């Protein structure tokens, strides 16, 4: 598909220029219509609701057309400047991946907005139907889709927005594809052979990275929706809940059961890619589950962990720099006690 698109872009450069001209015409038509609406509103002394909605739709459409125009214009400019086949390939590959990346960001952002809204509604219902009706919660904040969209676009994980995460993935994939195509040309391989190599190299990378990105940002969105709802409900404290199973990392395990004041919360899930932690609301003392040490013991339960597992976990704990010394000491003591019972330590 990529090679076919590249060939099409080379063979249809004239059509691309016509496409730019058509985009320019559409943008001019929209501007004319907007000007006409402004004149009608000025003549009448106010904006009709139908005029206002039409203007909003036209402005949104105009913005999309401008983005499409600028993207295609950059590609054509790069094609004009390309002096070697290698530069041409690089330009076309980057253009295809950038176009794919824009569609992916748009779709994933829309999905995350929906997740945020659904999670907020679910959390509200959960708190309103709080066990035993011990506390009554009232919610007045309107969930505006446009506001949520801006929240999602501005959200960061380790200082990077969703767009930055996916852009990096796109750049890396484009570089791999570019090298494969160049090698295929240099070795005189057939298009079919090069396509097979592209599919082989990119499919696994794309699947793993996209799954990781989607899973991590979904957890991030769930967490943000929960925290915003907790704050709206006036909840002051939350308790960290980790998935204490065979896949949990020491960094998350040591936080399980820890209670945090919501207004002073410095870190929140996800702590790392594929993190599965969450924050539970504390309304009263009955909501607090086992202490951290009890959580460690459950995580390191002897009937679930083989000596090899415990030794591997011990090694990971020693390597993990984010765990506080006192927490690391507790973890190592529990692991060593389990190993002693199994006869691995004296």
Set out the fold topology:
Elements: H1 2-11, H2 13-44, H3 49-81, H4 85-128, H5 145-154, E1 156-157, E2 160-161, H6 162-186, H7 191-233, E3 237-241, H8 250-253, E4 259-261, E5 278-282, H9 292-299, H10 307-319, H11 325-341
Antiparallel strand pairs: 1-2, 3-4, 3-5
Helix pairs in contact: 1-4, 2-3, 3-4, 4-5, 4-6, 4-7, 6-7, 10-11
Question: What does this protein structure show overall?
Answer:
The relative contact order is 0.07. The protein has 346 residues and is mainly alpha-helical. The chain folds into three domains: 73 residues; 150 residues, no CATH class; 106 residues, no CATH class. Helix content is 69%, strand content 5%. Helix 2 packs antiparallel against helix 3, helix 3 runs antiparallel to helix 4 and helix 4 packs antiparallel against helix 6. A hairpin with a 2-residue loop joins strand 1 and strand 2. Strands 4-3-5 form a three-stranded antiparallel sheet. The chain has a two-stranded antiparallel ribbon with strand order 1-2. The protein contains eleven helices and five strands; from the N terminus they run αααααββααβαββααα.
Keywords:
346 residues, mainly alpha, two-stranded antiparallel sheet, 11 helices, 5% strand
* Percent of residues in helices: 55-70%
Total number of strands: 5
- Alpha-carbon distance between the termini? 62 Å
Strand content: under 5%
Q: Mind telling me the C-alpha Rg?
A: 27 Å
**What class would the helix/strand composition place it in?**
mainly alpha
Order of strands, widest sheet? 4-3-5
* Count of domain modules: 3
Mean pLDDT: 79
- Sheet with most strands: 3 strands, antiparallel
Helical segment count = 11
């Amino acid at each position: 598909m990529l090679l076919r698109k590249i060939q099409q872009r080379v063979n249809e450069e004239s059509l691309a220029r016509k496409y730019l001209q058509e985009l320019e015409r559409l943008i001019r038509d929209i501007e004319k219509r907007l000007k006409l609406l402004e004149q009608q509103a000025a003549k009448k002394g106010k904006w009709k609701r139908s005029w206002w909605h039409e203007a909003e739709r036209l402005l949104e459409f105009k913005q999309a057309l401008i983005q499409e125009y600028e993207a295609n214009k950059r590609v054509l400019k790069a094609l004009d400047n390309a002096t070697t086949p290698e530069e041409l390939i690089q330009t076309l590959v980057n253009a295809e991946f950038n176009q794919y990346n824009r569609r992916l960001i748009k779709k994933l952002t829309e999905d995350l907005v929906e997740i945020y809204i659904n999670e907020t509604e679910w959390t509200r219902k959960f708190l309103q139907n709080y066990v035993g009706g011990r506390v009554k919660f009232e919610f007045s904040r309107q969930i505006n889709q446009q506001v949520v969209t801006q929240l999602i676009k501005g959200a960061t994980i380790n200082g990077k927005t969703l767009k930055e995460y996916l852009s990096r993935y796109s750049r890396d994939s484009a570089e791999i594809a570019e090298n494969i195509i160049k090698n295929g040309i240099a070795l005189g391989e057939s298009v079919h052979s090069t396509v097979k190599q592209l599919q082989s190299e990119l499919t696994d990378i794309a699947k793993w990275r996209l799954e990781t990105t989607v899973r991590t940002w979904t957890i991030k969105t769930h967490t943000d929706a929960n925290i915003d709802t907790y704050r709206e409900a006036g909840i002051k404290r939350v308790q960290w809940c980790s998935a204490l199973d065979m896949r949990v990392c020491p960094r998350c395990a040591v936080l399980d059961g820890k209670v945090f004041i919501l207004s002073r919360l410095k870190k929140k899930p996800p702590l790392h890619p594929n993190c599965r932690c969450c924050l539970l609301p504390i309304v009263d003392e009955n909501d607090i589950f086992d202490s951290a040490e009890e959580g460690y013991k459950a995580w390191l339960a002897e009937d679930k962990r083989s000596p090899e597992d415990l030794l591997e976990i011990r090694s990971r704990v020693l390597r993990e720099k984010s765990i506080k010394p006192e927490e690391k000491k507790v973890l190592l003591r529990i692991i060593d006690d389990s190993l002693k019972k199994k006869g691995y330590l004296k």
